[in-house]
Amino acid sequence: MTTATTPSELEDYWEQLDCGFPRVKPVFADCMREALATLSGQGVEAYISNARFLGKMGRGAEPILIFLEEWPTVASRLGEEALPAIMECIRRMTKSPNGNAITPFLQSLPVTARRLQSPQQLRDYLDIVLDFMERTTGSIHGIHQTFPSPGLPEFFKKIPLLLGQLSLEGLKNWVEYGVRYYNDHPDRQIDYFSLQSADSRAVLQRERHGTLLVDNERRLDMYLRGLWHDEGQLIPYSGAFDELRKPIPYYDKLGIRLPDMYDDFIRPSPAGGREGERLPAGEIVVSGLDRYRAVLAHIAGHRRWTTAIFADNFAPFQRMAVEFLEDSRVEYLAMRVYPGLRRIFMALHPTPAEDACDPELESGVRHRLTMLSRAILDSRHPYKNPHVVEFAQRFHMLMQQGDMSTPEIAELAVSFVAKARRQSDQLAKMHFKDTVVDYRDDNRQMWKFIEEGDEEEAFDEPRKVEPGEKITGLPPRHYHEWDYNSQSYRPDWVSVYESLHPSGNAAGIDRLLAKHGALAKRLKKMLDLLKPQDKVRIRYQEDGSELDLDVALRSLIDYQSGATPDPRINMSHKTSGRNIAVLLLLDLSESLNEKAAGCDQTILELSQEAVSLLAWAIEKLGDPFAIAGFHSNTRHDVRYLHIKGYSERWDDQIKGRLAAMEASYSTRMGAAMRHAAHYLEKQQADKKLMLILTDGEPSDIDSKDGRLLIEDARQAVKELDRQGIYTYCINLDHKADEYVADIFGKQYTIIDRVAQLPEELPTLFLSLTK
Amino acid sequence: MTNIDQYKVHQEPFYQAQGDEIALYEAAYAARLPVMLKGPTGCGKSRFVEYMAWKLDKPLITVACNEDMTASDLVGRYLLDANGTRWLDGPLTTAARIGAICYLDEIVEARQDTTVVIHPLTDHRRTLPLDKKGELLEAHPDFQMVISYNPGYQSLLKDLKQSTKQRFTAFDFDYPAPAIEAEILGKETGIEAGLSAQLVKIGGAARNLKGHGLDEGISTRLLVYAATLIKGGVEPRAACRMALVRPITDDADIRDTLDHAIDAVFG
Ligand SMILES: Nc1ncnc2c1ncn2[C@@H]1O[C@H](COP(=O)(O)OP(=O)(O)O)[C@@H](O)[C@H]1O
Ligand SMILES: [Mg+2]
Known about the structure:
The complex is a heterodimer. By secondary structure, chain A is of the alpha/beta class. Chain A has four domains: 7-207, no CATH class; 211-269 and 283-448, no CATH class; 506-529 and 578-769, 3-Layer(aba) Sandwich (Rossmann fold); 535-575, no CATH class. In chain A, helix 17 runs antiparallel to helix 18. The longest helix of chain A is centred in the middle third of the chain and has 22 residues, at 316-337. Chain A is globular, with a radius of gyration of 35 Å. Chain B is of the alpha/beta class. Chain B contains twelve helices and nine strands. Chain B has helices spanning 21-30, 45-56, 71-75, 91-98, 112-115, 119-122, 162-165, 178-189, 193-208, 220-231, 236-245, 252-266, and strands at residues 35-38, 60-64, 76-81, 84-89, 101-105, 127-130, 135-138, 144-149, 169-172. In chain B, the strands form three sheets. Chain B has a five-stranded parallel β-sheet, sandwiched between helices. Chain B has a two-stranded antiparallel ribbon with strand order 3-4. In chain B, strands 6-7 form a two-stranded antiparallel sheet. In chain B, helix 9 runs antiparallel to helix 10 (220-231) and helix 10 runs antiparallel to helix 11 (236-245). Chain A binds chain B through residues 218-219, 221-223, 225-227, 229, 290, 293, 335, 337-343, 543, 552, 555-556, 559-560, 565, 567, 569, and chain B through 70, 72-73, 77, 79-82, 201, 204-206, 208-209, 212-213, 253-254, 256-258, 260-261, 263-267. The complex binds adenosine-5'-diphosphate and magnesium ion (MG). Residues 298, 302, 327, 440-441, 443 of chain A line the site of magnesium ion (MG).
């Protein structure tokens, strides 16, 4: 790969990193390139220094490798400023006996970042983690801080699944349960946090409810765009951490903040209790999705109709009243555009009982305003309070005369406060029950302040992306890998680097082709057999390339005998049939350098011959065709070598690359197949065929369990099948019977006499695609 | 002899002007300049041409272009006859002979080698060579070339050649403004004004999603369909789902959003 980062710059970074692990060096340049492209100048510094720290922790190469690879992606999702909190968490692990959790923690970050999406959510998440760690570390039989937390590493491995189903609040509850009940039983704690035990699953089920924002972002985005012609980043927050005051939706220039989860709104039980507390059999009145829509409609209404006014002119109660009435106004206008909103607002808006607030003991300001708001919304409200009734009427009268403006509403609100005032309004204790309209925002955008700096600050700053140095190499792509032990994917587990295969001398390939002159002739005959059949005659054409004599005569007779002639007397030819896109994926692992049994050529040389012949044959047929090679050196470094692309012709350049083919390292097949598939998938062909030429089983040096990569490759075959890609393996390993069927089912051939490969490969292809 | 009358538009078609396009078209016709109507499908291009043909009292020959269309489908071909073969003019040739407005609808659907046959008719030559017949046809002084084209489907394969585009004056059409569109629905189908406005609102929601999962919003034509169904007694929500949402998308999120829009609008 070429790079625009100068080698000396890279050298500088490498020196700063000061890392002696041999596995880091080969991927470092690529990681740096991605980092330079995505991180700010400061971010790059932090990247290097923190990587250095991870490399020197005494936990092996894994932490630094994962960090180098994943951080740029994570940072682009969460923002660079999330790093200190993450590193702090790691430091706490190193200081406690929990170093063993660092690698799983780092590994879980990309998924965590994808699900959490905001720095605040990440901080909340890290709080759960640290609390969990502290409470489960070394507390067995009172000995302090000696044993690592048994559950923590398991927890990180399950994080993709957990965050896929739970809100942060749900996660917190689930963790809480495990910590509380299994703190003294390391084995059972492990079972719990690895989701093995029955109660662990049961608690997960219990906590799993509601509609998650992350799962509905696209719909809500469309709602905002489609119905409100508005747009904005939707940013989730969790309701689990502020016990006293539930956070309220709001918006600012960075986006719209919404709770990360909404339960369906169940009809409240007659006994009271506004939200019916998840009654199992209650009737769903408003779905979680519609609750999100209600918030967005309310906010879109403010954005369309509210103008900010100065807060300094109003007393606190007046401000509260202005907010309530302005909320009512934007909703009134929103319902005028979309009458269907009324049903949703009506269901969600509380109806406080008129006598719920005891004016002797509590301040009734909120209570009264909520009643007014309800009365405005609901013409069949139950209230008798004359002020409420009067102002609801005035509101409607004024709205019928025009849309009103925020200042006009403010006037109305101020006069309501004045008229309805009671002595007890000044009491310290405010009546709160049934006065929160939870689809309304906190109205911070409604106010301006004469004194600068009074505005509430937004909590996350935008991420600064400096125009990093130009990059030419492709950043790594991350692929998941199937872990058959847990029957789940390890997300973003494998890094695939793609590069152009180095070039050699094309003449070498021409020599090989010449050597197989006789075979080429035989192949040519087979090709010719395939070809003519693909011309199809289409008869009964009104307009065609030739006259169809039979039909023409019949028409002529019809015509002369006075019947209506068929005008479709022509025929034409169409090339039909072959509509196949092919990708040939070559295993370029070390073992190809071995001599093939029964001849003095290496498997690599024979492969070169076979591939050349095949490429030549496919070119003759005209099928879209690509070639790539792969090898791997641990999951951090799978190389995908581009040899021929679909748009490239079979020419000297391609032959040059084939001629330069070399074999080294191992065979992480699943990742290479997934990467190859994303190219093949883009081809527009009826049939898509991926041929995999290999001489052994999937394996890699960082995978001691031999089954693991076999099972992963098998999973990859299944995934490709779902994408409409037919995989077929040509295997040169005579011991392949033991595993090849497990991976490819019936879709394979074992070629025992490797010397026959140049002949077998094209023949096999032709018969496969006949 | 071809009967010119059959190509005439006898009844005044209803056309709701969106701006000064009628006067501008008249000017273009007065100079016999070729006209290109750009805009999304179903926004009133064809209706406009029909209306102009009626207003100018000229015959109109419309060809809906498609991928399988060949040059001879436009120009003409020899057919077998009792006494051998007989030449039959294609629609383009007929139009040039009788002095009609020739309207090639959705011209990008035709292959580019087909569309080049119109070139000589669209410059100062105003001729059409009938190669097979050995005739060079001089266009009738009333003849005018009009094409329509939807720039929305930008694709490498489906775009007009520059050399074709450069021969036309162009009108930019778009879906009418809400008030006008509501009026069109009312006049076309006789539904009442409140309902028209509701339909237009749903159309607007879909049009806002163009480029965010939708290639094209809901067209005026589809709104007319929905209105027609409702006029015929179909329940409004069902009519809207059937005429407005299902035809334009298979994407579950979009469908859900538009279904919600229908509920929101009808309340
Ligand atoms: N300006 C308009 N005046 C009258 N009807 C219109 C107008 N615009 C659209 N329509 C209605 O929409 C339908 C589709 O319009 P059409 O002209 O066929 O669209 P296009 O040619 O742009 O695809 C028409 O049949 C008519 O009912
Ligand atoms: Mg508000």
